[in-house]
Amino acid sequence: MTVDTIRNSGLPEPVALMKAVAGAVRETFENMVFSESEPGGAAVPLPEPALAIGLRVTAPFQLRIVMLMPEELGRRIGATIFRHEEDGDATETVRDAVGELLNTLTGKMMRELIPGDRLFSMDFPRPWRPGDEGNRPADLQCPFMVEGLPFHILLYGEIDFK
Amino acid sequence: MKMTILIADDSKTARFLIRQYVGMAGFDEAEFIEAANGREALAALERTAVGLVISDFKMPEMDGLELLRRIKGHPAWHRVPVVMITSFANPAKCEELRAGGAFAVLPKPASPESLYKVLQPLLGAGGLAGNGVGPV
């Protein structure tokens, strides 16, 4: 699919998509985790073990967005949000917190990309494995750093990002 | 004056953040009850007098739009204000939810400031507790 075809189809262009991802990540981390995120430049390999949560956008185009981060960052996010008032580093709580972070930033990204008079839809955040995409590489990978730790946003979709 | 706020969201994190933000917005007298979907929210409304509902849109089993319709169609609950906080809050979705009777629609991530702006007029109109209804 060419850029012109993308324009004519109403699908977001890759550059617009990357800008929307970066803006959504920045605002969501500031609001929910009170942390500043920075674009990570070249993709930094993630330390293991990693936590991966995915969410499918189902309309007006098909897109899977995945948040991939070291478990340590997930635990810090859970602890920051819950401020030690609840068991913020319990596995289920961390997954819920990262899932809500992904849900929020995806909504923010879609509001940026889709004209205001059009509805969009997306599924619930769920744990994700590379096999969910047939082990193929992501169409677009956006690396970030937060609190000195790297995390990645991976995009798989019907858009030709090349 | 004590007010009871029902928070409906499938995410424990979202429910926790809303509780925090409502308190930070200055409404620290509020009491909260929580539900993970629309069905649980309706069950809570049957049991408890609620002054305000804050609901997500996308929830399993029963979503926020259906919950809104049930509340606005119920003779005992239709005056309870419903504030929707959702990732889907673009102009088209806001219009749909307001047409369904939502008092206000806020995009995620919400903030104490955005909640204050929405809740303050409700308090000024006699207090959230004044909108409460008894269990059916």
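qc> The first strand of chain A starts at residue 37 and ends at 39.
qc> done
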